[in-house]
Amino acid sequence: MQRSITTTFDRPRPPATARPTIGERVERLLERVDPAVIGLLFVVLALAVYYFSNQQRNSIYDHFVWQADAFLHGRFAIAYPVTAGPYQNGLFQDVMPLPGPAAGPSYALLPFPPLPAIVLMPFVAVFGLATNAQLVGVALGAINVGLVWRMTTRLTERRAVAILATIFFAFGTVHWYAAMLSSTWFLAHVVAITFTVLGITLALDGERRERALAALRALRPSGGQRPENEVVATFKESSLFLGWYRRLRPHFEPVQFAAGFVFGVAAMARLTVIFAAPFFLFVGPGGSILRRGVSAALGAVIPVALLLVYNQLSTGHLFSPVYDYLYQIEYLGYMPPGFQIDRSLGIEDIGHVPLNTLIMLGWLPTIPADCSFSSLAACIATKPDQVGMSVLLTSPAYLLAVPIVIRYWRRGIVLGSALAVGAVAFVNLMHFSQGWVQFGYRFSNDFAPFAVVLVTLAIAWLGVRKTTLGLVALSVLVNAWGVYWGVTLGW
Predict the structure, then answer these.
(1) What pLDDT digit, counting tens, does each position of 252-279 carry?
(2) pLDDT grade, residue 243 (50/70/90)?
(3) Residues 47, 68: one domain?
(4) Is residue 116 located within the same domain as residue 149?
């Protein structure tokens, strides 16, 4: 396997003369398996688990199917409300009806960025409004697991570490719940994760390639000229394009540009993902913060600009006004007494942060009143709260990121990942709502790929041992419990 750019976090292997333990024998066996085979097995396993976790897949919230249908018919607005026929949307939430003639067809705008609908367009072109968007989300969620496996192998040379980190993402985070459900809001998270992970992996691959080339150049005799430089020198006087290329090349890194572009595409599914951009200042090819940042920014600005153009064409505004409309009319009475959402604040306001931080870090499940150490049988009825649940309870393996950040915060990949997680989390906490009728904290999907980077590095540093295995196993058990209750309760 090629050397990872972060192998300094890996624990040293035991001497070859030492008698290997069972775990070391398993790890050596894994080293002999093609990583592509392991990735494929992860995809198949995740596909099976996500599929059989929720076989009904009968959610009425398929906004993106209707949006894809509207695109295919040359419209931005969906037909709404449709209350007759086999496919109806009269019970949709999160829509803004448009004025129109009383006797004519009526339409509505959706507040969501368009990428999930674009992903569904080929399916809707074939199956029409019968398209099962939830099934597409299941398949895409399984692909995400394979992509995360590929990403973790760029972070560590130890197969066991990469496998454990991938298991954590696949079954120990709320990505499991989002993928198996894949109704409107959760499908957007699944799609965003796909492109976020691809962007991160491109940056990691680019940095590894850059280091390998630097090592090769160090071995080249001094004074030798790179062949590509000779070609460019030959044509620089006669080619305007090559001349500009030579001027721009010192300030621009193509692979980092591609990483930024793919990352920017993720924002076309979940806009808040774009606030993870600091990651690309510290990770990727380019040689300096400025060159990495400029290259990634030039790539990311293209899809973000397209999103703004989409908003302008569909609503007449650069920033969609639909959420402002929904903020005024949406039902917010689901919070318990003493925790009501303050409508006097803006839709995005720092005043929302304290309450939302409580939901993200401290919200508890619903525990029966008679649950106690003397009556443990009553505790079996403990179930998730539909408002949400602390990420520290749903995915306790995230705690592994804390020591790696404290110890190695000066390392570029640690600092970049931590800043990405913090920035995305903070912007989400400013939003008036954190989601409702959900297991866990679904907004954590927006920063999960960057948090998984930190967890992977932490496992590589600490080793695959009781602590890391135990926290990942506990995360998987809690998410299995949450998925069970979510399906049982019809969420």
Answers:
(1) 899 999 999 999 999 999 999 999 999 9
(2) low
(3) no
(4) no
Domain hosting 484: range is 20-57+132-217+227-488
Six-digit token pair at 409? Answer: 């915060």
Decide: 177 and 166 in contact? Cβ < 8 Å: no
Name the 3-class secondary structure at 458.
helix
- DSSP-derived letter for residue 374 is T
CA distance 282 to 415: 7
- How much is the pTM? 0.92
Same domain for 137 and 272: yes
| Phi–psi pair at 340, nearest 5 degrees | -65, 145
Cβ distance 413 to 281 under 8 Å? no
Spatial separation of the C-alpha atoms in residues 55 and 487, rounded to whole Å: 9
Q: Are 352 and 430 in contact (CB under 8 A)?
A: yes
CA-based nearest residue to 398, from 171, 89, 173, 223? 173
Q: pLDDT tens-digit profile of 114-138?
A: 999 999 999 999 999 999 999 999 9
Q: Are residues 311 and 402 in the same domain?
A: yes
Contact 302, 309 (CB under 8 A): no
C-alpha to C-alpha distance for 323 and 183, rounded to whole angstroms: 19
